[in-house]
Structures are given as C-alpha cells and as structure tokens.
Write a structure and sequence with these properties.
CATH topology of the largest domain: D-amino Acid Aminotransferase, Chain A, domain 1
Strand order of the largest sheet: 13-12-9-10-11-14-19-17
Shape: globular
CATH superfamily of the largest domain: ATP-grasp fold, B domain
Number of domains: 3
Strand content: 25-35%
Distance between the termini: 49 Å
Structural class: alpha+beta
C-alpha cells in the first residue's frame, strides 16, 4: 500500500480522501490556499502545505506548487479528487515524471476521454451506443447547420473539451443554432482553451444515468452498478440515487456491459464513470461522456455496494487486488445523495458567507461528507458545494423518509443554502414516484 499521499484538492473531497487514507495507515499531506486556512481538511491531514493565494490558478491549479509540496513533504503519491486538475492529462504526466504515483487512470486514458468527439468515436468503435452526432468538430457555424440538418432538430451544441455540464446549449432551429454555436465556441475557448464544437441529437425527455467502473490492477474492468443523476439545474447535478428507479435488471445488464466495454477500449485503470442518456419510453441509452476521476456522487454507490471507492483507488494505484470479490458484486438497499450548496434555493445563485451554525443530522442510514463547520467561511472563490447529505435505506421508500428527516435536522446558518429546495424535492410527487427526468427542477420552478 502507498505509504504517503498528497491530496491535491480541498474541502469535502479532501476530507473524504484523508479519512480513508488514515484508516489504511497512509500518511496524508493536505495543500491549501490562503482562503482555506480555517477549513477542517487542513488540520485533519498529518501535514499541510500552504500553496498560494485564493486564486485557483495560483493554488489548486498550480502544478509547480503542488509538485513542490509533494517533494518537500516526501509524498509518494498524489490523489487529485474531482475538479481542478483531476482530469488534466498533463498534470498526471507531470506527477509521474516527478517519480510519484498518480492515483487515477493513465494520462493516455484521460486524453482519450477528454475530447468528447474522440471519445464518441472510440466508444462507437467499441460497440457502445452513441447518440447521432458529428464525428469531427463543426469547424464553422455553416458546418454546424449542415450537420444539424442531417441529425435533425433539436440538437445539443457542446464544447468538445468540456465536462461537468459546462459548455452546452440547445438549438431548436437554425436561427437558435447560429446563436448557440457562437456562444458555446466562445465559452469553450475561454474556459478550456479549445473552441472545438460537437453537434449531437438533443432528447427533450431523457434521464441521466451513469455507471461506476473500476479498472483493477490486473487489467480487469468491473462495473459497480448505476446512479440516477437526473435532478439537475443548468446541467449541474443536485441529487443522485442508486439504484436508478428507471433501470430494470435487463437494462442494468446492458448498461453495465456497455460501461465495461468502454473502460476496456481505453485500457482503463482506477475509478471512472461512464455517463449515459436514457430514453425512458424506449429503454435506449447513449454514451454521453466518461469522467476519468472519482465522482462527487460516489457515496451512493459505496452504500449500496458496500465498497470504499477511495480505498479501491489507492489499492489499484498500489498494484494491489481489490478488497472485494468482483464476482459477488450486487446492489443491496437504496441510497440518495443531496448536494448541500451555498446557494439560493429558488434561483440557485451562489450565496457565500461565514458559517455561524453548523449542525449535521445523524442516525441510522445517515452519512454527511462535509467540507465546513461552524466558525469557517464559504468564500466566493470556489464551487458552492458545502456538504453531501447521503442516506441509505432497505428500499427507496425508507431512503426517502430518512432523507426527509435528515434535511429537516440539518441546520446551517450564515451562507445561503439549498436545504429548502431538497425539502420541496422530497415532497414532490414526481420525484417520489421515481418517474422523473432531467426537466424535473424546471417543472418545480
């Protein structure tokens, strides 16, 4: 097992990684910006290194500062968490070039899946279903219009280098496409340094279902079930659950088999997620993208499958076999995750601030992965995620009731927070029925 680990991240996910590493006897090194000096993850690590000011470019995306921290502390490995540099192939290469162990997939796999068009083409060649779309970037707005005429409206305009729901727009006709193309291209150039645009069929009523995969040290790729991620605002996930209420045993078998093929196609190692769009009416699903990292919503899989995914990441990176029997994988019970964000519960606009009260719910089946506590401050410099409230039950009905009680018991005073939205969601008839899609939040508003 790796003996020392630098956690190249912050907040909730840094605490999450540190918790498992400590249990395994792995020495942990946290890195933090000046804005995060008072957060719990800094003191919970065995060692902590200040790497720069609040700006992500000068701190959590500063490759030189991260590698210097690893060198001065004698770290053996680097865990990137999610976000920041977690899907940056050049960072992974730099880590390995420095003689360190990268806790993630190979830089080649990250690169292959980082470009949506290349990923689509690779998946199609591997026999994974993909939605109708372009096999090359739409080099001009006229090329996009020609592609859309062939695919059929409505279409999704997507940044080829994007991820996490960023850099996307929907066009219902040519006029809208011309507007969206320019917007997405400009956004992609600004955010990703790559203005390549993909045109893909848009499905108005669709569910977002993803499969957790794990590439083992021996080269085997296994799938640990699916997660339902259709509760979204602005293409950003708010709540997830596992198993998906929309997935039958037959569909699950097809989804998991396709996800394994996707991983095998790129020689995948470590934890990753194959994201799909599911048409509820037909049971057809299409590859959306592969996230080459640990997902925010990984706890629901952990609870349903009884697996610690961070431990498995560390075991793969150490060349060790898994701590579970891949042949015995089977879902038990039901888990729901709610992303507690520092944002207005109606318009979902960020609302940072000092935390004066922080009381987490407890009880059977309740888990809270948090990045904050009373006396800390949610700053405007980073993502608004404060905590993940995760509940588990013997079935979905019990999980829903435990979630309602946990939301009512969670007390946060200071920054704005979206707990009232989750109280509304958990009482929503459409959500409670399990028959919902990616438009549910818009319909609630």
């Amino acid at each position: 097992m790796i003996e020392s680990l630098l956690v190249a991240n912050r907040g909730e996910i840094a605490r999450r990684v540190i918790r498992t590493a400590r249990r395994l006897g792995v020495r942990t090194i946290a890195v933090y910006s000046e804005a995060d000096a008072d957060l719990p993850f800094v003191t919970e690590a065995d060692e902590a290194v200040l790497i720069g000011p609040a700006s992500v470019a000068q701190s959590y995306r500063n490759v030189e500062a991260l590698l210097a921290a690893a060198k001065t502390t004698g770290a053996q490995a680097v865990h990137p968490g999610y976000g920041f540099l977690s899907e940056n192939a050049e960072f992974a290469r730099a880590v390995e070039a420095a003689g360190l162990i990268w806790v993630g997939p190979s830089p080649e796999a990250i690169s292959a899946m980082g470009d949506k068009i290349n990923a689509r083409n690779l998946m199609a060649a591997a026999g994974v279903p993909v939605a109708p779309g372009t096999t090359d970037p739409a080099a001009s707005v006229d090329a996009a219009v020609s592609a859309a005429a062939e695919i059929g409206y409505p279409v999704m305009v997507k940044a080829a280098a994007g991820g996490g729901g960023m850099g996307m727009g929907v066009a219902v006709d040519e006029a809208a496409l011309r507007t969206e193309y320019d917007k997405v291209r400009a956004f992609a150039e600004r955010m990703f340094g790559d203005g390549a645009v993909l045109i893909e069929r848009y499905f108005p009523r669709v569910r977002h279902v993803e499969v957790q995969i794990l590439g083992l040290a021996d080269g085997t790729v296994v799938a640990l079930g699916e997660r339902e991620c259709s509760v979204q605002r602005r293409n950003q996930k708010l709540a997830e659950e596992s198993p998906s209420p929309a997935v039958s045993p037959e569909l699950r078998a097809r989804l998991l088999a396709a996800a394994v093929r996707a991983g095998e196609a790129v020689g995948y190692r470590n934890a990753g997620t194959v994201e799909c769009l599911l048409e509820p009416a037909t049971g057809e699903f299409f590859f959306l993208e592969m996230n080459t990292r640990l997902q925010v919503e990984h706890p629901v899989t952990e609870l349903v499958y009884g697996v610690d995914l961070v431990e498995e990441q560390l075991r793969v990176a150490s060349g060790l076999p898994p701590a579970f029997d891949p042949a015995a994988l089977a879902p038990r019970g039901h888990a729901i995750e709610l992303r507690i964000n520092a944002e207005d519960p109606k318009r979902f606009l960020p609302g940072p601030g000092a935390v004066t009260t922080w009381v987490e719910p407890a009880g059977e089946g309740v888990r809270v992965d948090s990045g904050y506590a009373a006396g800390t401050t949610v700053t405007p410099f980073y993502d608004s995620l404060m905590a993940k409230l995760v509940v588990y039950g013997d079935d979905r009905a019990q999980a829903l009731e435990r979630a309602r009680a946990a939301v009512a018991a969670f007390e946060i005073v200071g920054p704005k927070q979206n707990l009232p939205f989750f109280a509304e969601l958990l009482d929503n008839a459409e959500f409670r029925s399990g028959d919902y899609d990616t438009g549910i939040v818009a319909r609630m508003r």
